[in-house]
């Protein structure tokens, strides 16, 4: 498989998943609206609330993530070599040079965040700077800059908002079902009862389904960033070797949690990736072995 075909394949799969996500949420709105008897008013309230959530996530998610991660911004004098790598790769990729942050932790890892390339951040741990050679570090930085150029940082923020919206809809429906007044539509008693049953099933399952979709998008964007990063450096082995080293390091990243794990180049919560078919649906990242195999086949 070539780098270009890998990029094209992963873009197509991500668009398909996002399309299905929108269909899923639209179906939820329709069922909940019918079941509660609120109809379009339910949709309107949900869209207003999700819009406010989207604005907050769009403008402040990067600050929240950096704060949770205890990341500190550094200047060129603090690490000239890291700055040269980031600057050279950003220029080569045709994107603005992002701000650079570091996390004081010996676990090797890295992530990118921000709402667009003009407001992007690349963050690396002190461990990754100590444990990788220059070619491997370039592979990691190229991977993170690819997330920036591919607008993954924005996409994952949007997906997080959609997942939050699904949870909000389920909670709103539960409260309407338990405590609210459910006005029945004229002549629709039996139909509304059926929608109520469907709505209860959706209320239970929809947050799980939404999380699975979020993780599926995250895994596809990791494959895409691997391929795009390899295209940028023209040296897939650099990233493959970096992933190999990081996977052999069993030290967990202390500041990471389930809310931020999907951002990192590999799962920072060691021991959480599982291999069987069902359990792997809940992994934040694709299997390291598979990523390395694909990179070395390019």
Produce a short descriptive summary:
Helices cover 65% and strands 5% of the residues. It has 9 helices and 4 strands; from the N terminus they run H-H-E-H-E-E-E-H-H-H-H-H-H.
Would you write up a description of this structure?
This protein is mainly alpha-helical and 298 residues long. It folds into 2 domains: 3-65 and 152-210, no CATH class; 69-151 and 218-297, Zincin-like, CATH 3.30.2010.10. The protein contains 9 helices and 4 strands; from the N terminus they run H-H-E-H-E-E-E-H-H-H-H-H-H. Strands 1-2-4-3 form a 4-stranded mixed sheet, with helices on both faces. The longest helix is centred in the C-terminal third of the chain and has 45 residues, at 189-233.
Largest sheet: 4 strands, mixed
- Residue stretches low in confidence (pLDDT < 50, at least 5 long) are 182-187
At CATH level 2, the architecture of the largest domain is: 2-Layer Sandwich
Instruction: Report the sheet-strand fraction.
Output: 5-15%
How do the strands line up in the largest sheet?
1-2-4-3
CATH class category name of the largest domain: Alpha Beta
Number of helices: 9
Round the mean pLDDT to the nearest integer and report it: 82
Overall number of structural domains? 2
Number of strands: 4
CATH superfamily of the largest domain: Metalloproteases ("zincins"), catalytic domain
* Helix and strand composition category: mainly alpha
The H-and-E topology, N to C, reads as HHEHEEEHHHHHH
Cα separation of the termini: 6 Å
Shape designation:
elongated
The name of the CATH topology of the largest domain is Zincin-like
